[in-house]
Design goal:
Length: about 240
């Protein structure tokens, strides 16, 4: 068996051929400048790639991914991405996108303590342990994990909203909107879970994350509404 990856390099050439056949100037434009309006923060899971699920071209979305889309206030990686996206690229929207059935969230709920990733997942496992009775009352394991996947999205949106980078942008009047979404692997659809935050006052007005855990119906109704909207948008218009 060959130890080269020529099959991938061949696919790259075929992709370039397709792109230039459709749009001869595509790579010239890409080489000149990127002007993404969005920053995407999602899980490293191989099944959720921003450009695919949003049907966007390269250059249209700036991306950061890690296991279970966790935002650590000491993570130089995400802070550098956030700073460059907001202050350099002037993105208008930051989207935290989790996904149902997230393996990282599953591990956090299993309360493992044996690997580096368990340190990484600690914010999720800490929230789970704090509200263990609430989560464990959900009898179906997949539903329990999915519920934490939703809560995790909101927690990470709040963590981004709490960074000095975002606070400074809002303070100087830069348009910047934070969004919490979740992706369903089984149907390919995104759901807008919220919160939507565009100012420090909106962040301060949010009920606590503990409130969100204790009142799941609010989030569930939002998910159902979004799911219905998504499905109705798929109806043929004529
Ligand atoms: Zn995941």
């Amino acid at each position: 068996m060959s130890n080269t990856l020529n099959h991938l390099l061949d696919r790259n050439v075929a992709w370039v051929d397709r792109k230039t056949a459709d749009d001869p100037d595509f790579f010239r434009r890409m080489a000149e400048q990127q002007m993404p309006r969005y920053l995407w923060v999602s899980c490293s899971d191989s099944r959720i790639t921003a450009n695919d699920v949003l049907d966007l071209d390269p250059g249209e979305i700036f991306v950061h991914r890690n296991i279970a889309n966790v935002v650590h206030s000491s993570d130089m990686n995400i802070l550098s991405v956030l700073e460059f996206a907001i202050e350099g690229l002037k993105v208008e929207h930051v989207i935290v996108c989790g996904h149902y059935g997230c393996g990282g969230v599953r591990r956090a709920l299993a309360n493992e303590r044996s690997a580096m990733v368990d340190h990484w997942l600690q914010p999720i496992s800490m929230l789970y342990l704090k509200h263990r009775a609430v989560f464990d009352a959900i009898p179906d394991e997949a539903a329990r994990i999915d519920r934490m996947c939703e809560i995790n999205v909101e927690m990470q949106v709040r963590r981004i909203a709490a960074t000095p980078i975002v606070e400074k942008a809002w303070a100087r009047g830069q348009p910047l909107h934070l969004h919490g979404w979740i992706y369903a692997l089984h149907d390919g659809l995104l759901r807008d879970l919220g919160p939507h935050l565009s100012a420090i006052e909106e962040r301060e007005a949010l009920p606590s994350i503990d409130h969100r855990v204790l009142h799941p119906a609010e989030a569930v109704s939002a998910i159902r509404r979004q799911a219905l909207d998504a499905f109705s948008a798929l109806e043929p218009c004529c």
